[in-house]
């Protein structure tokens, strides 16, 4: 009986699966739908055909608006923009990290009682540079204008005309001087911003241990917002020096010399630290921590691989690797040359001079790194390393007190590096590059490129000295730029910030006060040569 029921149930199911049965089932369902619609209000019944029309049109529009697949050429172009942008951003981050290098270097080369002050200046200066450069600096430096300054706007990067990453004749915007690089405008701004911050940081070390904190901040805003963009426009912004044939690949003049000139004027207007020069002798005031100074040097050396190769602002394998090698070679030879020179001249292979020489070589090759061969980069670095040793004692003889040697490294070697373009540039017909300076004097060219470089050095130096003098004199007259003698003796950490860098640590003091005539160095020599003031 149970088997019979199962067979009967199976037969009924099979009957329902027949075409006729399926048809009647659908009819019944349609009738149920009609009865359900009939129970709706007239308003809801009127919405049903309208909804059906919207769904049909929507589906058709979606099909009609489907974009065609990009071509292989379009995909490759988009990939190149992405890779170039990534390289520019990473290189810019390396340059940004140089702020840590400057902070460590300057703190280590200054005395313990001023460590907080030096660290504070190096930390806040990039924040201030960001604000000043975003507000007006970038617009003045790179927007279209005359040979002197950019006049097309672009302040705060707000609502500017720009179709980057289009390049060359396809570019439409107010930053024609940057139309050679195919990256978005924001990437261009970021890379130039970290350069501007570097120029302001150079000043920090030269005026360390006796400048008021607020006045330094105001000067940094004026430098990055006004002085640096004006001379930068002349060279990188399509100004009159660029049209006259002056070349500076990554900033020996645009950044290092400008920061060096501003630092020199600041040190001159401030005057030397108390006790630095006594009875015609130079008293060494050694830095308190050569360990972090050395770390700072290594960080800066690393950052230079973003500073110089990053200035290609494109993923060009040949150019990037070549520039990295010329940069590293110059830094290495600069360090060795400074070590040997200091050993012979001062009697000891002073660590501060080794650091001096490495940085001097890096600064010296910055202007020419893309346009010279490796042997010539070694020559440039060697000469920079020798120059920096004698530059330190030269400024001491002038009674210009620079606690960290910013003028010796960045100004003197920045000038040398700019001249090196006119001496060692290979020339655009040699295959190393197709657009750039004419061949230098020592590689078969004439005096033409060297003369252009000399004009640029004098012009930029004159304008920076003029503007820096105005800024420093105005601050000195209105607010005063130097702390009191008591505050300087106590230390700026307590006077300016009300705190110490090494609270709880035992402090070391020397027992004598020995002076050394003609002795200098980035940090004023190694420990134990004289007592802390």
Give the tags.
two-stranded antiparallel sheet; globular; single chain; mainly alpha; 533 residues
Written account of the structure:
Helices cover 64% and strands 1% of the residues. The model is unreliable at 510-533 (pLDDT under 50). The chain has 533 residues and is mostly helical.
The helix count comes to: 17
| Oligomer classification | single chain
Radius of gyration: 34 Å
Query: Mean pLDDT score, rounded?
Result: 88
Shape verdict: globular
Structural class category: mainly alpha
Between the first and last Cα atoms, what is the distance in angstroms?
116 Å
Unreliable stretches covering 5 or more consecutive residues: 510-533
Q: Major sheet, described briefly?
A: 2 strands, antiparallel
Tell me how many strands there are.
2
Order of helices and strands: HHHHHHHHHEEHHHHHHHH
Indicate the proportion of strand residues. under 5%
Question: Any chance you could write out the topology, listing elements then pairs?
Answer:
Layout: H1 2-16, H2 19-38, H3 42-64, H4 72-109, H5 115-142, H6 185-206, H7 213-235, H8 240-243, H9 252-270, E1 277-278, E2 281-282, H10 290-307, H11 317-346, H12 351-365, H13 374-397, H14 406-424, H15 448-478, H16 485-490, H17 492-497
Antiparallel strand pairs: 1-2
Helix pairs in contact: 4-5, 4-6, 4-10, 5-6, 5-7, 6-7, 6-9, 7-9, 7-15, 9-14, 9-15, 10-12, 11-12, 11-13, 12-13, 12-14, 13-14, 14-15
Summarize the structure.
It contains 17 helices and two strands. The chain has 533 residues and is mainly α. The longest helix has 38 residues, at 72-109.
């Amino acid at each position: 009986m149970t088997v019979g029921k199962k067979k009967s149930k199976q037969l009924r199911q099979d009957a329902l699966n027949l075409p006729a049965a399926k048809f009647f089932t659908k009819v019944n369902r349609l009738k149920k739908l009609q009865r359900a619609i009939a129970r709706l209000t007239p308003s809801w019944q009127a919405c049903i055909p309208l909804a059906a029309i919207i769904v049909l049109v929507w589906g058709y529009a979606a099909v009609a608006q489907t974009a065609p697949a990009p071509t292989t050429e379009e995909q490759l172009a988009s990939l190149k923009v992405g890779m170039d942008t990534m390289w520019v951003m990473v290189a810019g981050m390396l340059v940004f990290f140089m702020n840590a290098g400057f902070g460590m270097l300057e703190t280590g080369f200054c005395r313990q009682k001023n460590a907080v002050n030096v660290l504070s200046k190096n930390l806040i200066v990039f924040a201030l540079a960001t604000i000043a450069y975003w507000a007006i600096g970038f617009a003045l430096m790179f927007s279209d204008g005359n040979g002197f300054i950019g006049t097309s706007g672009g302040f705060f990067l707000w609502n500017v005309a720009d179709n980057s990453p289009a390049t060359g004749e396809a570019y439409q915007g107010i930053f024609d001087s940057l139309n050679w690089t195919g990256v978005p405008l924001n990437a261009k701004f970021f890379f130039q911003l970290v350069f501007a911050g570097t120029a302001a940081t150079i000043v920090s070390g030269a005026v360390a241990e006796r400048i008021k904190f607020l006045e330094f901040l105001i000067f940094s805003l004026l430098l990055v917002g006004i002085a640096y963009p004006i001379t930068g426009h002349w060279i990188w912004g399509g100004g009159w020096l660029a049209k006259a044939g002056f070349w500076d690949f990554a900033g020996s003049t645009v950044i290092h010399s400008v920061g060096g000139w501003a630092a020199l004027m600041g040190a001159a207007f401030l005057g030397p630290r108390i006790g630095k020069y006594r009875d015609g002798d130079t008293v060494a005031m050694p830095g308190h921590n050569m360990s972090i100074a050395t770390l700072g040097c290594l960080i800066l050396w690393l950052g230079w691989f973003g500073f110089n190769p990053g200035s290609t602002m494109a993923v060009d394998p040949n150019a990037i690797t070549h520039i990295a090698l010329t940069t590293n070679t110059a830094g290495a030879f600069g360090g060795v040359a400074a070590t040997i020179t200091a050993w012979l001249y001062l009697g000891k292979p002073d660590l501060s001079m080794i650091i001096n020489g490495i940085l001097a070589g890096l600064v010296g090759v910055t202007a020419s790194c893309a346009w010279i061969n490796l042997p010539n980069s070694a020559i440039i670095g060697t000469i920079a390393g020798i120059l920096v040793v004698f530059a330190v004692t030269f400024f001491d003889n002038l009674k210009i007190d620079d606690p960290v040697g910013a003028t010796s490294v960045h100004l003197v070697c920045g000038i040398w590096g700019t001249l090196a373009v006119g001496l060692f540039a290979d020339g655009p017909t040699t295959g190393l590059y197709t657009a750039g300076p004419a061949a230098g004097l020592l590689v078969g060219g004439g005096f033409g490129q060297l003369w252009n470089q000399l004009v640029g050095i004098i012009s930029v130096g004159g304008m920076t000295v003029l503007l820096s003098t105005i800024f420093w004199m105005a601050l000195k007259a209105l607010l005063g730029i130097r702390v009191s003698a008591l505050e300087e003796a106590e230390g700026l950490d307590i006077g300016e910030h009300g705190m110490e860098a090494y609270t709880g640590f035992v402090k070391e003091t020397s027992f004598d006060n020995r002076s050394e005539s003609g002795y200098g160095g980035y940090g004023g020599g190694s420990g134990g040569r004289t007592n802390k003031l």
